Amino acid sequence: MKYWLKGFVVLCTALLVACASETPYKPADGRGDYGYSETPLGDNRYRITFEGNSSTPAETVQDYALLRAAELTLAQGYDWFETVDRNEDKRVRSTTTDSGFGATYHQSQTYYRNCDLLGNCDTVVTGGTVVSPGSGVTTTTSRSSYKYSLEVVMRNNPIPDSAGAYDARKLANALRQRLIEQR
User: Cβ(143)–Cβ(93) under 8 Å?
Assistant: First the structure.
């Protein structure tokens, strides 16, 4: 019994260490995986999404989505892009453990945030709870993960004087230097 418990603890520790690092800037392996993905919506229109794990801050997830939009814009032969829609999802997972008989409560909430070009945002919260009975002192831990999506239209110069328009080359260079090369 002792060896089984020791092996279980080692396995749990290894899983925690694997999950403790930020999501790297890379393509997602499949739907729902961490990393970036893009969906063509027309000749010069794409939806870019970056999904991070619970160790990746919201700002980094947003910056990775912008970096991918800039790189894709350049790869498609355009000079600049404009965001026409953006969406941020926040998922919060809380686990409460009861020290009495090992009861565990898993609560998961997802925040969907959709913003228009003027910055007006709608937020929807969904969630559920799974409970295993017990009694005693409880401890709660929460972890958040983020997914950020941009719908962009890509164009060539001249770039308009608009808050949603980005020079792809300048943005890609600035974000790469700050996010990737400094790590």
Answer: yes
